[in-house]
Specification:
heterodimer, A: mainly alpha, ABC transporter involved in vitamin B12 uptake, BtuC, two-stranded antiparallel sheet, 12 helices, B: 262 residues, alpha/beta, Rossmann fold, 6-stranded mixed sheet, 4-stranded antiparallel sheet, 10 strands
Chain lengths: 312, 262
């Protein structure tokens, strides 16, 4: 009994203290993975805030963006041009979704819109495969996947670039939504559609904007994951990891998506490395979901979500 | 004895019907609102008052008839376009942005007055900040006017009902509307709150010269503040005139009190 207690509650911490450089590496790896989860979760949050739609297709949008970018690069398009074109494609996609999916379904139940995004999910998956092929592709945007060592800590250049890009993107988005006129309009739409219409906010424009932003976020997430592990269909599955992030952070909170992603990213890496051997590994695969379950029991509105008080 | 020629109406509703399937909620209603007047729209429950207001503000589109604002036809506009013309409204069940502070709520009323591209706004701090400050100054005037200084930073959802109604009025006023549509601005208020609201409606009309159309059930309020009263019953207009005439109108009395069938 004391042995077990020692293994669970003491040994991992002595390990951490014994090799701080390794701990920092593990933490950095967790932060990297966490930022990627945050990016995908951010796409969900933006669309959910603005339209109350849970966009099931967010993961496939990540895949679609990555496929488009790789496809263009393979045809010899320079990186910068390819990124610009991919952005244009994602914005065009936002316009198309507003016109063909959202507008005909305006004032429908949320579940109907949710179903529509499931349809969108399959369409984009098939369309991407048709246009760009289904092979696993290597995505090379010119950032070497090399490591350098700072004070005994091994740092991967690609991961560092990805983390910095994600941090900048998240900061810019947060400023955009807190400080600009369109940010205020977006928060207004999220709160009350009718009132937003009555003060002259065109819902259609707002929808195009949020879907475009979600598309751009998808590009960044797609590029980062793709550069790390190749562009393949499993990329769309990271959307599943974004779900626990949303439960942790709250569906309507941008900071929640970021903090939630970091907690899950760091938590699963640390759990895997230090506690994994005790249970035969694979903690990384279920940690996020167990944590989400615990949150659903203890704090269903998430860390940053607003507690809903029903007046009776 | 010569009457002054009536001014050209600000809003003209001409033979407007609104139908929901087989139900005719508003049936060929015509009315005009003159610039600067306070018009009350009254009628029993289900008479079509809110439906008419929704048609004017673009939430419903008339099945027949036309609506003109400032002598321009605008029957089929969407709510944001109507707002852009200078028509602001409040809702029967307060429609505030509950998560935002009172100040932010009122600032949203200024969105249409703000200019400039979103991207410039995000990158280009100088002019964007100056614009924001100018709008803040105007909003502060409205906050003073409606005496809600104390709750500026409170999230709107936490306010008591009477104050929420007042904040909603403030948001509508922030748009500097030519025509203000108020859907039961005093519903569910106590006597004191009603008196305050009446004062604000009258002051708005006098100070800003805003034309106001309001739906109200409290007859005392209607008789006190309105220049003219339109009465709806079962979707039809049954009376239109000065409050003192409406009070004695037989059709109106019948609609409210019922008619003896004998």
């Amino acid at each position: 009994m004391t042995d077990l207690l020692y293994l669970v509650a003491v040994a991992p911490f002595t390990d951490m203290a014994g090799s701080p450089a390794f701990l920092v590496e593990v933490l950095l790896g967790g932060v990297f993975a966490g930022l990627m989860y945050s990016l995908v979760a951010l796409g969900f949050v933006l669309i959910f805030k603005a339209s109350g739609v849970f966009n099931f297709a967010q993961g496939v949008m990540v895949l679609f963006a990555a496929l488009t970018l790789v496809g263009l690069l393979e045809r010899g398009v320079p990186v910068v041009v390819a990124l610009a074109l991919t952005t244009a494609v994602m914005v065009a996609l936002a316009f198309a979704i507003e016109r063909l999916v959202l507008r005909p379904l305006v004032n429908q139940e949320h579940i109907i819109l949710f179903m529509a995004t499931i349809g969108l999910n399959f369409f984009l998956e098939g369309f991407g495969e048709m246009v760009w092929g289904a092979n696993v592709k290597r995505l090379d945007i010119g950032i070497p996947d090399r490591s350098f060592i700072v004070r005994g800590v091994q740092i991967n250049q690609l991961e560092l670039t990805a983390a910095l890009t994600a941090a900048v993107l998240v900061t810019v988005l947060a400023l955009f939504f807190q400080k600009t006129r369109i940010g205020r309009a977006l928060r207004a739409v999220a709160d009350d559609h009718e009132a937003a219409l009555s003060i002259g906010i065109p819902l259609k424009t707002i929808w195009v904007v949020v879907w475009s932003v979600a598309g751009v976020v998808a590009i960044v997430a797609g590029v980062m994951w793709g550069a790390k592990s190749g562009v393949q269909f499993s990329l769309s599955l990271i959307a599943l990891k974004a779900l626990p992030v949303l439960i942790l952070g709250g569906f309507e909170s941008v900071p929640g998506a970021i903090v939630g992603g970091l907690i899950i990213g760091v938590g699963e890496k640390v759990g895997e490395v230090y506690w994994g051997p005790l249970v035969g590994g694979a903690i990384e695969n279920w940690f996020a979901y167990v944590l989400a379950l615990a949150f659903l029991l203890a704090r269903p509105q998430g860390l940053f979500g607003e507690k809903i008080i029903e007046r009776v | 004895m010569s009457q002054p020629a009536p001014a050209r109406p600000l809003l003209e509703v001409d033979g407007v019907s609104v139908r929901f399937g087989a139900l005719v909620a508003v049936n060929r209603v015509s009315l005009a609102i003159a610039p600067g007047e306070i018009l009350a729209i009254i009628g029993p429950n289900g008479a079509g008052k809110t439906t008419l207001l929704n048609a004017i503000s673009g939430f419903y589109h008339p099945y027949e008839g036309r609506i003109a604002f400032d002598s321009t036809d605008r029957t089929m506009l969407s709510p944001p376009d109507v707002a852009a013309l200078g028509i602001a409204r409040t809702f029967q069940n307060v429609a505030l942005f509950k998560g935002m502070t009172v100040l932010d709520n009122i600032m949203t009323g200024r969105l249409l007055k703000m200019r400039g591209s979103f991207l410039l706004e995000a990158l280009y701090w100088g002019p964007a900040r100056r614009q924001e400050l100018e709008h803040r100054a105007f909003v502060e005037r409205i906050i003073d006017f409606l005496e809600i200084q104390a709750i500026r930073k409170t999230p709107a959802g936490r306010l008591p009902y009477g104050l929420q109604k007042r904040v909603e009025l403030a948001r509508a006023l922030a748009a500097e509307p030519k025509l203000l549509l108020l859907d039961e601005p005093m519903a569910g208020m106590n006597v004191e709150e009603k008196e305050d609201m009446c004062r604000f409606v009258l002051d708005t009309n006098q100070e800003f010269g805003t034309t106001i159309a309001l739906i109200e059930h409290d007859m005392g309020v209607v008789m006190d503040i309105s220049d003219r009263v339109v009465v709806l019953d079962y979707g039809c207009k049954i009376a239109d005139g000065a409050p003192e005439h409406i009070r004695k109108d037989q059709a109106v009395l019948d609609a409210y009190l019922g008619v003896a069938h004998d």
